[in-house]
Amino acid sequence: MRALDALVMVLGFDPGPLVSAVASSVADGFSPGARIIVFTAGFPDERAERAWRQFQDVIGLMELPKRLNVKVERYQVPLNDFVEAVCRVKEIFEDLRELRVKISITGGMRALGIAVFLAYMLIDWKYEPLVEVYLEGRGMALKIPEVQRIVKYRLTSERLELLKAMKPGRVYKPSDLSGLLGKDRSTIYRQLQALVEEGFVERADGGYKLSRLGLLLV
Length: 218
Known about the structure:
Structural class: alpha/beta
CATH topology of the largest domain: Rossmann fold
Number of strands: 8
Strand order of the largest sheet: 3-2-1-4-5-6
Largest sheet: 6 strands, mixed
CATH class of the largest domain: Alpha Beta
Number of domains: 2
Distance between the termini: 28 Å
């Protein structure tokens, strides 16, 4: 994968998950001039301000702006109106839509995290962003499948029937599915190829199986 052009994070009251997300992204690689974007709640809160200062201190110690030519930006998002919050985040995302982006929902500010996720779903990205959610107090992140594809993709009834015929974890050959569905093998093969391209099916052990995204869909 190409280096990241932007890392997006959500800050609540604990800078720890943000530091973990930055460290992980440094290991993956930043492109020159990459942006680290931090969303915070748009109301005064000393705990949040303290967390922001602590995060800045760590970034300074890591020397990211100087060493990797990375720009750190903070955007405050109003949370008195949820639609306004989503629109504010979406406005920032529009500038990132043609870049390689990673979105880490890292803080305990739940409303802000939901606003960021919804804004991500509403953008027509050139490259599907990597999305992860950090578990509070665990120091680990859950990778989120490319769920935006489910919203954007319009499955034909034939392809949906094919997906529903496939059991989780089982590998199928086109002939297996042809027999199950009573359809021509060449037709099944073409449908499988299209589903592989869309990310709902993946090749495995000489056949095909549902991908994680396909499991979510069916």
